[in-house]
Design brief:
By secondary structure, the chain is an alpha+beta fold. Helices cover 21% and strands 30% of the residues.
Length: 171
């Protein structure tokens, strides 16, 4: 069964054993440390939520992966590896930081959860703020520069990025 909705959202049929974790505003994760506040997005491998880290009094993003991904910890491993790279590299500050990771048991299985620093809006959302739906040249140039610095940092740490969902260690 496939249901259509006016709001773009993940497919409801993926809320099954091995699939997405049913998450609600106010839910508490990791023994009450993280409280879910708002849905930020979704993809084929999970949903992303704004959460309040109640231990450190700050907002974070929590990526709750599908339970089928429980044995695929590659993303967390890559982010941990990148956190160990040289602090003086100009690209390091443009790489999202993994703050914590844990497993959450739910009705659809055990879900890997990645706690990430909270970032700003997407480039697409920023572009939508302009009448032309295009970024001003100076801003587009700065975003391009930061992206290239981040890619150089990833490459210098011997990690190869091969597409939207494919990341490979070369070490």
């Amino acid at each position: 069964m496939h249901l259509d909705a006016d709001v773009e959202a993940e497919p409801i049929e993926r809320y099954r054993q091995g699939g997405y974790h049913p998450t609600h505003l106010g839910d508490l994760l990791k023994n009450g440390r993280y409280q879910i506040k708002h849905k930020l997005g979704w993809g084929g491998y999970g949903t992303v939520w704004l959460a309040n880290d109640r231990d450190l009094s700050r907002y974070v993003a929590i990526k709750i992966l599908v339970a089928e991904a429980i044995h695929n910890t590659l993303e967390a491993e890559i982010l941990k590896e990148l956190s160990l790279g040289p602090a003086d590299h100009p690209g390091k500050k443009h790489i999202v930081q993994l703050l914590d990771n844990f497993e959450h048991e739910g009705p659809n299985g055990s879900h890997p959860c990645l706690v990430l620093e909270l970032l700003g809006s997407s480039v697409g959302t920023r572009a939508e703020a302009y009448k032309s739906f295009r970024l001003p040249g100076a801003l587009a140039w700065e975003i391009s520069k930061q992206t290239l610095q981040a890619l150089a940092y990833i490459h210098d740490n011997e990690i190869i990025y091969g597409g939207k969902v494919q990341m490979v260690f070369s070490k």
